[in-house]
Design a protein that fits this description.
By secondary structure, the chain is α+β, with helices and mostly antiparallel strands.
C-alpha cells in the first residue's frame, strides 16, 4: 500500500508464464508486492508443478533482477 495525501492505494502485481509457441498460460500469480524482483523463482517453480518439467528457456524483463537471485 502506498500513502498519497492521506489516503491509501491498494495495488496488485500480476505475473504470468506463457508457452512461447502455443501462447498458453502455464502459470499465474497475483501478489501485493510492489516489484517483480522476488517473483521469478516462484513463477518457474509453479511452471514445473503445473507442466511437470523445467522450461528450456526463460525470458524476463529487468524488473525481475535481484542481487539475491
Amino acid at each position: 500500500m502506498e500513502e498519497h495525501k492521506g489516503s491509501f492505494v491498494l495495488g496488485y502485481n500480476a505475473q504470468a508464464a506463457v508457452h512461447s509457441q502455443t501462447h498458453v498460460i502455464v502459470a499465474a500469480e497475483i501478489t501485493q508486492q510492489a516489484n517483480d524482483s522476488q517473483q521469478l523463482v516462484p513463477m518457474i517453480q509453479q511452471v514445473v508443478a503445473n507442466v511437470g518439467s523445467k522450461p528450456s528457456a526463460v525470458s524476463a524483463d529487468a524488473g525481475y533482477w535481484s542481487a539475491r537471485t
